[in-house]
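User: Can you recover a sequence for this backbone? Please restate the input before giving your answer.

Assistant: Of course. Working from this structure:
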């Protein structure tokens, strides 16, 4: 008389050393979940049902993953786990066994040089993405600046408000010697230069002298009266 345990069995498969399609040597481990549904078939149709399932799962795992690239295995391990489960389950149906799930557990590189190469590749990929993000940010900033320039060009009030904001920011800065020249001074200089002829007529600078300050003649008269 044989006693058959019908509960779900959980076993970890031995590490499988494989060489992927892109010639990467790696070690893969997996966990298998199954239970016996028909005790008669499990006893009469196979000598050791546990050993048979283990060997079948390992074979299907190697056959499938050796046809895939390493990065593809890392990205789609859940999908490949389902494919391996379906293949093993179809083969074990005659043994009275139901394979619930086979899950790929660890996927490790066996060559240290390959580990360093993969790390460098990942670092280069991250640097590439960072450069692309910076370039995209600079492009968007340039577009916004161009749009702002168009708005300011057609709106003198906005230009004046922007100038006042700049002056306010400069006034808040500490430990700096800042000379703020009103825009009206430059406008007055420009108008005076335009009023001169092209022959080099002398420019009257009295327009730029502070009206509140006394003239040289007044200073001289004051000094003579004191004498």
């Amino acid at each position: 008389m044989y006693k058959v345990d019908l509960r779900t069995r959980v076993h970890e498969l031995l590490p499988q050393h494989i060489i992927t399609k892109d010639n990467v040597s790696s070690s893969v481990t997996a966990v298998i979940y199954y239970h016996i549904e028909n005790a008669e078939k499990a006893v009469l149709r196979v000598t050791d049902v546990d050993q048979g399932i283990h060997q079948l799962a390992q074979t299907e795992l190697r056959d499938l993953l050796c046809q895939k690239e390493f990065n593809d295995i890392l990205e789609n391990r859940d999908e490949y786990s389902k494919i391996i489960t379906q293949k093993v389950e179809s083969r074990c149906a005659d043994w009275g066994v139901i394979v619930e799930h086979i899950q790929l557990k660890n996927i490790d590189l066996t060559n240290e040089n390959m580990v360093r190469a993969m790390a460098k590749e990942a670092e280069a990929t991250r640097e590439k993405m960072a450069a692309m993000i910076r370039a995209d940010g600079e492009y968007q900033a340039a577009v916004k600046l161009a749009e702002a320039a168009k708005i300011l060009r057609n709106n003198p009030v906005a230009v004046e408000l922007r100038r006042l904001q700049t002056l306010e920011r400069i006034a808040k800065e500490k430990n700096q010697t800042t000379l703020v020249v009103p825009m009206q001074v430059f406008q007055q200089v420009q108008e005076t230069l335009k009023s001169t002829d092209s022959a080099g007529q002398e420019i009257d600078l009295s327009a730029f002298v502070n009206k509140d300050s006394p003239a040289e003649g007044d200073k001289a008269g004051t000094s003579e009266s004191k004498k």
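That completes the design. Residues 208-227 have pLDDT under 50 and may be disordered.
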